[in-house]
């Protein structure tokens, strides 16, 4: 019998991460035109997501490219992490916790250097699931097919046994192309129902007339 598996994204799924407006605030504070921060930092953000820079190097590039002093770098990075980490989606986390022992459980997250340490400290995701696969640790990010291969290999499961949950349609479609079942996260109720259907796919009897 094939072991069922549920794999979830973090930001926008297990974490509630609304936009905080921190980048426009910094551009206003530094008297920079809108869009300047991401124009200057775009390649560094990418490098941080696939592990090509360390957290120290990320901070150094923030200082150099935006002309920030040490205290400003601290404040800038604090604002970044506030939005990145969001708040816990307590209802969904509790549901996933209740699935332990019923199926294999994993996380696949597009991340940046430093995410594992902070999310472990705040949310103990390492205790929630069996394996966490971060893009900055494997060197590729969703929707690259290699990211889905990596999480299946980590859990030692076949793609067709997995339900993948993500809040971005492009990642959901990529998971399906990789052979997984996939669900676009919109709210907890529909996600919990979809997980239940994945774990118990037997047809339900029609109600009596």
TrEMBL record:
Q: Which UniProt keywords apply?
A: Hydrolase
**Which SUPFAM superfamilies does this UniProt record tie to the protein?**
HAD-like
Q: Pfam families, per this entry? A: Hydrolase
Gene Ontology molecular function terms on file = hydrolase activity
Q: What is this protein called?
A: HAD family hydrolase
Q: Which organism is it from?
A: Streptomyces lienomycini
Q: What is the lineage of its organism?
A: Bacteria, Bacillati, Actinomycetota, Actinomycetes, Kitasatosporales
């Amino acid at each position: 019998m094939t072991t069922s598996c549920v794999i979830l994204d973090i930001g926008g799924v297990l974490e509630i991460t609304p936009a905080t407006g921190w980048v426009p605030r910094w551009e206003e504070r530094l008297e920079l035109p809108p869009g300047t921060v991401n124009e200057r930092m775009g390649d560094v953000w990418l490098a941080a997501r696939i592990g090509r820079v360390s957290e120290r190097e990320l901070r150094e590039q923030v200082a150099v490219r935006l002309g920030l002093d040490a205290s400003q770098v601290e404040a800038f990075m604090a604002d970044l992490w506030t939005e990145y980490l969001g708040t816990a989606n307590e209802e969904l986390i509790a549901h996933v916790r209740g699935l332990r022992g019923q199926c294999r459980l994993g996380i696949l997250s597009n991340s940046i250097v430093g995410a594992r340490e902070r999310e472990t400290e705040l949310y103990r995701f390492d205790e929630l699931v069996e394996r966490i696969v971060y893009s900055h640790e494997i060197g590729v990010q969703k929707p690259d097919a290699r990211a889905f291969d990596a999480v299946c290999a980590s859990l030692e499961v076949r793609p067709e046994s997995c339900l993948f949950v993500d809040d971005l349609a492009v990642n959901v479609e990529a998971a399906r192309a990789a052979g997984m079942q996939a669900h676009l996260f919109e709210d907890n109720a529909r996600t919990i129902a979809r997980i239940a259907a994945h774990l118990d796919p037997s047809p339900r009897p029609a109600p009596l007339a």
